[in-house]
Amino acid sequence: MRTQAAELFAQQVKAPELARQLRVSVKSAYQWQQLWRQGGVDALLSRGPSGGRCRLSPRCLEKLAGYLEQGPAAHGWTEDQAWTAARVATLIGRKFHVSYSISGATRLMRRLGFTPQMPARRVAERDEQAVAGWKEATWVEVKGPGRPAGATSASRTRRASPAGHPKDAPGAGEATPRSSP
């Protein structure tokens, strides 16, 4: 697209017209025009993706993918078989002595074709039979009766329809103008 911009600038096309033709912002068109004037077509060429460079070499990335394929248990996480971003960041630190943030580890996992998993937050000693028994016996008593079937909600942001009010309800008559003091 930027090479097209360079061709249009060479044909004396103004930045607003270029923006319209290439469907970019006028601000971008003016920036491209300034770059083109200073350095020609070469100045408009892409410099690659922005952001920081990957701190792991291609060889280390291959090793990391192998470690991830082995599963968390092979690296000391025996509670569950979920690769969380925090675990991957820790693994990278242990194996490659490179610090990654959780979001950086997430991006790296996605780049390698993995997705971070959310761990189940359950106690390892949880007794499922005891929980089911409590739900059946105690929860019903503690819970209470709940709302009646015909109950409606009240909202500050939406007024109730006048069709649903009884005719003898307060305020059901005609609107009366306020008297000024």
Kindly summarize this structure in a few lines.
The protein is built from 7 helices and no strands. With 181 residues, the chain is an all-alpha fold. The termini are far apart.
Sequence-ordered SSE layout with sheet pairings:
Elements: H1 2-10, H2 15-22, H3 26-44, H4 58-70, H5 85-96, H6 102-111, H7 128-143
Protein architecture, described:
By secondary structure, the chain is mainly α. 48% of the residues lie in helices and 0% in strands. It contains seven helices and no strands. It has helices spanning 2-10, 15-22, 26-44, 58-70, 85-96, 102-111, 128-143. Helix 1 crosses helix 3 (26-44) and helix 2 (15-22) packs across helix 3 (26-44). The model has no long low-confidence stretch (mean pLDDT 81).
SSE order, one letter for each helix or strand: HHHHHHH
Q: What is the averaged pLDDT score? A: 81
Distance between the termini: 69 Å
Structural class, judged by helices and strands?
A: mainly alpha
General shape: flat
Helix content: 40-55%
Strand content: under 5%
CA-based gyration radius: 32 Å
Largest sheet: none
Q: Regions with pLDDT < 50 over 5+ consecutive residues? A: none
Number of strands: 0
The helix tally amounts to: 7
